[in-house]
Amino acid sequence: MLYVPGSSEKMIKKSQESDSDCIIFDLEDSVAAHRKGAAREAVLHGLNAAPRPGPELAVRINPPSGDHSIASDDLDIILPSRQLQAIVMPKVESSDDVKMVLDKAEHLRQDYDAPLSLILSVESAASLLNMPHIIEEVRSWGKGHLAFISALLFASEDYCAATSIIRTKSRRELLFPRAHMATIAKAYGLAAIDMVCVDYKDASYLAEECRDGRELGFDGKQAIHPAQVAEIQRAFSPSEADVLRAARIKHAYEQSVKDHKGAVGMKEGDSMVMIDAPMLKQASDTLAKARIGKMKIPDVSTEA
């Protein structure tokens, strides 16, 4: 998910060439207060001018939990765009923040076919601990035909500022909130988006941070520079070896079911691995990601 400053018409236009999976036109932190109005118009133009098909198009609005009128103005301008697919909501502290977007969508997007994807940003301890209640309350309103929560996003710098955590390259101090947020996301069937790597010139550290995030269960990562996109996509996509192993697991399990058996042993190098339903699910998830990334799924049915 690549952030693009909403106040830069040059960067907005340049983003049309991006290979990122999602472009986030930013109306919040990257835009000075006196430039908010101009940024809204630039972002609206960027949304409407973006060639389709292409990356998912999102906008990070100003937080409804902050100045309500600024967030309201953002929504009034961008919601009518038929090319808008997602809204990143910063500093979500209560379900009222989400309700504001839903209420606006009810007035401005009534006749739109596809509902908006809402990505909720966790930026404080209270937000993290309240998130299950927020999700459940929003879902109870039954307005999913207008907009639905699709993902949780961890905003590390804001979280550190709110909790007095000192961020280090070890990431040790952020292990709990990141893992906790990813767990909440998975519990509610949502995607989990990891923090920004602020040192965008250190490619090896970015790769390390990506591996760390994937191991914690994150599905993707935020980027602040186009140079980060390729490494993030590589790190969060299955390797050819991962895909081959997943295909073998799926084939072995399905063959076992045909033979009226349950779990089955699969030879892997010098070892024998037990294949059961949880491993099938992991393999199926890997193959699904491979298909999204247009990777070739090998035919393993002829292997001995």
From TrEMBL:
Pfam family, any one: HpcH_HpaI
GO MF terms held by the record: lyase activity; magnesium ion binding
Record domain HpcH/HpaI aldolase/citrate lyase: where: 1-226
Keywords: Lyase, Magnesium, Metal-binding
Statement: the UniProt record of this protein carries the keyword Chaperone: no
Keyword Cell membrane: no
InterPro entries: Aldolase/citrate-lyase_domain, Citrate_lyase_beta/mcl1/mcl2, Pyrv/PenolPyrv_kinase-like_dom, Pyrv_kinase-like_dom_sf
Cofactor: Mg(2+)
Binding positions (Mg(2+)): E123, D158
Transmembrane region(s): none
GO biological process, one term: oxaloacetate metabolic process
List of residues binding substrate: R60, E123
Lineage: superkingdom: Eukaryota
Protein's recorded name: Beta subunit of citrate lyase
Originating organism: Tilletiaria anomala (strain ATCC 24038 / CBS 436.72 / UBC 951)
Lineage: Eukaryota, Fungi, Dikarya, Basidiomycota, Ustilaginomycotina
